[in-house]
Amino acid sequence: MKKIYLLLLPLCLLFAGCVDEDQYADNQNGNFEALWKIMDEHYCFFDYKAKAYGLDWNEVHDRYAKMINSGMSDTQLFEVLSNMLGELRDGHVNIYSSFDVARNWSWHEDYPSNFSDTLLNKYLGTDYRIASGLSYRVLDDNVGYVRCATFVNDFGSGNLDDILSYLAPCNGLIIDIRNNSGGLISSAEELAARFTNEKLLVGYLQHKTGKGHSDFSSMEEQWLKPAKSLRWQKPVVVLTNRQVFSAANEFVKYMKCCPHVTIVGDKTGGGAGMPFSSELPNGWSIRFSACPMYDKNQQSTEFGIDPNDTVSLTDADFLRGKDTLIEYARKLFRE
């Protein structure tokens, strides 16, 4: 029997499980049917996306099944399967073969980046500090700046204490997570916990309980607990763009609930489903969303989170060597 493995990033508990799947032949049609069936029974956003843009997974099956034939090459099969999964518009959905990775990155590819490494280097300079993957410094107007490019690593309580202690004299703090595509939800939670003094309800999550599109557990509350170590008490601005995804999307969700925090930039890229992994008869791996998460108002953040203030990088500022989003944040602190 084919096994499907559930690999959830740390949230409240880390666990793994598997369910049995029907056996499919290792040929073009068998791999197609296996993929469609696995998604049909375990993907978590069918109802939501049917309402959002009219997704009909049965219609998708019938349309793409006509493209499958026994004479097609592996490359051709991979293209058809990739295009079928593209109907889900989900950045967490991938197929991994020996020759390619199928992905849907329309959540950021169709939008301006609102980020420039050239400008970032001007603000950081060459004497910035680095701790546990975070780059930080004090800008010339006494504003603290922290560049968080990923949540792949555990930050460590001592590292965060040292960073916040160093920036403590600053009037405000900028946390720049632009282009942060995610990582460990536990790391996003660990950082956000430094910006609240009380336990906060930040959202909800559900788990799949059956093979039907609507088979889910009841809403389970997500709480952000204040860190037991040093916590920041001054204004904070979080900079976002469309490439903020997955665990970074969750970080924005948490920070929106914290006091004295303003989200500035573009709508995030989303990615509100915890990943689930499986394998097709031919050995190709697939990944998809199986555990939906919501904000504190029980609204899905799958397609992103709006900022408090929408700000875009302008050509005029770029030519002046200025980052529009960073300058906007500094202006907020002055006011």
Helices and strands, with pairings:
Blueprint: E1 2-7, E2 16-21, H1 28-42, H2 46-53, H3 57-65, H4 74-86, E3 94-96, E4 101-102, H5 106-109, H6 117-124, E5 129-131, E6 134-138, E7 143-147, H7 157-167, E8 172-176, H8 185-192, E9 200-205, E10 220-224, E11 236-240, H9 247-255, E12 261-265, E13 273-279, E14 285-295, E15 309-310, H10 315-319, H11 324-334
Parallel strand pairs: 7-8, 8-11, 11-12, 12-15
Antiparallel strand pairs: 1-2, 3-4, 3-14, 5-6, 6-7, 9-10, 9-14, 13-14
Radius of gyration: 22 Å
Which segments are poorly predicted (pLDDT under 50) over 5 or more consecutive residues?
1-20
Give the rounded overall mean pLDDT. 93
* Sequence of strands across the biggest β-sheet: 5-6-7-8-11-12-15
Overall, the morphology is elongated
- Please tally the β strands and state the result: 15
Percent of residues in helices: 25-40%
Q: What multimeric state do the chains show?
A: single chain
Helix-and-strand structural type:
alpha/beta
What's the main sheet like? 7 strands, mixed
* SSE series: EEHHHHEEHHEEEHEHEEEHEEEEHH
Total count of helical runs of at least 4 residues: 11
- Beta-strand level of the residues, as a percent range? 15-25%
Kindly report how far apart the N and C termini lie: 63 Å
Can you tag this structure with a few keywords?
single chain, 335 residues, alpha/beta, seven-stranded mixed β-sheet, six-stranded antiparallel β-sheet, 11 helices
Question: Mind explaining what this structure looks like?
Answer:
With 335 residues, the protein is of the alpha/beta class. The chain contains 11 helices and 15 strands. A 7-stranded mixed beta sheet has the order 5-6-7-8-11-12-15, sandwiched between helices. Strands 3, 4, 9, 10, 13 and 14 form a 6-stranded antiparallel beta sheet that branches. It has a two-stranded antiparallel ribbon with strand order 1-2. Strand 5 (129-131) and strand 6 (134-138) form a beta hairpin. It is elongated. The model is unreliable at 1-20 (pLDDT under 50).
